[in-house]
């Protein structure tokens, strides 16, 4: 096996797009919590150092990710197993078929930047740095998780193109990967293999983030202040990793990126700080296909039949087994997709295709590279507008001048409200809460082309939501409509999200807590941290008192009623009864007629409200409380268990109590847990938390990475920041050369070739 591994390494180095004559050099200085500060004199050197440092911390996870995007998971891990694909678990075979079918490598090569462009040099350097680490470490030196793995190999620029494409599709096509991989014409395959896939309404999605940018009118020092609180998975390649890169005279930026990012995708420099939140905009449209009579692989356009493009996808299997071959079909609108549990199937007369605005988006890295060099929120606004390279997130920025920016500007389809109405089909209203469905039988239902957009078919930035203010802007994943209560945004295309519709409890809690804090005093770092870690539940504030009054005389509910009455209505580690409420809220939150006062667009922060407790509504509330108590009893969890005894990080010889709670219960510091024996373990929630302001010398940044830098259980940095997060503390980040040297841990590493 070792000889075969060496041959693969040699072949990989020979085929790499990096020139053998290229020179790479980087200096890596580690500070507290193993944060790397990478300095180089070229963009190639930056990529080289970032890749090497990332591999030191997370090589196995990244190597597996390159296997995923190459469509080789079945070969190395078996088709019966699964992969973490974005925010969900997907079977390896479906994952392989999706990546082999949907990643257009020749197209990505053709659309990538010119050879001399900074982005190209950055990526080439990353390839060299990853391969250098593999060469230095050797098969015997890798962590146990991937030591001797047949899937461990050197990478090429192609691997980076695939990986970047996957990141761009993370909140669009990738979420529908099983539905694309398993779409087959009637009688041509088992569409039930995608039956686990469901496209939930936006407000039911489990992911999200919070971001605030405070301008000079809202801060104690008159400068900008940013709070970044992205909610991302605690496991898998969508984990953040901290880094600081310096190319003298060109860029000096610190922050985090996902696996394979060659530079920070959110963070700060001397003059600006930025964060992202997943946007409510829709980055794809579905097209209803009217199929030709007697031929389910032909569809009608303007009265004429058009043949689908059939493509055989071959996935290699382990142990010499014959490859699995699947025929997939695509149309002028994109691939055919099925979503069985949402009612989207391929029948003899109808099918649905998907067109993704982020397919082929290679502009993202350039956009983040330029943001890292920006000096004001105005520059960031211009960058995201010019490139339309931000894939699926809001951009929230504060600068030292005291300006604050919210830009809901991403790669979205250019479809106006009028076009959506004109191209509606009888089925479109049925899918309105899930996706925008257009009529695929008409060529005039194609996305509009504007000369003001960087890419044909995308919505120009001038038609999206951008605002700069001096007080504050914020977003907790609701639409562009409401980022400041003093100035709701005018209605834009429905593709950008709902307008004057009910906000989520987390968004409402955000505005309530932010406005209350501002009424008390201007923001500084301390008060920002209190806002993020308050762990209040808006649902609890509206529900617990009326429910406990209702159950006060019920002997059969006495223990549950007492547990809720005694709970402090927060999700701190020592909050007793929080888990009981979480289970209870999940049972009642979708009840019909839950509130006496319904939503009012003129008062979106305070409506709906007032729990309905009389008659059948009250009986339903009491019945659900009994069910919740029984569920905890069956799981062996006492009703007034401290939240930190329920939600824990479980190490071999230690349990770390985690604070934060469910976003759907109106908790800003979101932590969603996965059920395990005796409780929960963190699955998705607060990840990289940063509070960044500015003084006369540069940024003043406090941050924590909740799940720590390394995925290697043997690393001392596997849970060190997790313990700090558990104590509700952040860490002051060193930024200047003097600060970095004062905080340096270990020897400086210089690598070159």
Structure description:
With 753 residues, this protein is of the alpha+beta class. The protein is 30% helix and 23% strand. It is built from 20 helices and 32 strands. It has a ten-stranded mixed β-sheet, sandwiched between helices. Strands 5, 6, 22, 27, 28, 29, 30 and 31 form an eight-stranded antiparallel β-sheet that branches. A hairpin with a 2-residue loop joins strand 15 and strand 16. The chain starts with a helix and ends with a strand.
Give a short summary of the structure.
The chain has 20 helices and 32 strands.
Structural class of the helix and strand makeup?
alpha+beta
Give the neighbour order of strands across the main sheet: 21-19-18-10-9-8-7-2-1-32
State the helicity in percent bands: 25-40%
Query: How many runs of DSSP E, i.e. beta strands?
Result: 32
Low-confidence stretches: 1-22
Rg calc = 26 Å
Cα distance spanning the termini: 28 Å
Count of helix runs = 20
Q: Per the principal axes of the C-alpha atoms, what is the gross shape?
A: globular
Determine the strand fraction and express it as a percent band. 15-25%
State mean pLDDT (0 to 100 scale): 94
Largest sheet: 10 strands, mixed
Layout of helices and strands, plus pairs?
Blueprint: H1 2-15, E1 25-31, E2 35-39, H2 43-69, H3 73-77, E3 82-85, E4 88-91, H4 92-102, H5 105-111, H6 118-141, H7 157-168, H8 177-181, E5 208-214, E6 225-233, E7 241-247, E8 251-257, E9 266-268, E10 272-278, E11 284-292, E12 295-301, E13 304-307, E14 309-315, E15 324-331, E16 334-335, E17 350-356, H9 364-371, H10 377-387, E18 393-399, E19 404-408, H11 417-422, E20 437-439, E21 465-469, E22 472-475, H12 505-520, H13 525-532, H14 538-551, H15 558-566, H16 578-588, E23 595-597, E24 609-611, H17 615-635, H18 643-646, E25 648-651, E26 654-657, E27 671-676, E28 679-686, E29 688-694, E30 699-705, H19 720-726, E31 731-732, H20 737-743, E32 749-752
Parallel strand pairs: 2-7, 11-20
Antiparallel strand pairs: 1-2, 1-32, 3-4, 5-6, 5-22, 6-28, 6-29, 7-8, 8-9, 9-10, 10-18, 11-12, 11-17, 12-13, 14-15, 15-16, 18-19, 19-21, 23-24, 25-26, 27-28, 29-30, 30-31
Helix pairs in contact: 2-6, 9-10, 14-15, 16-17
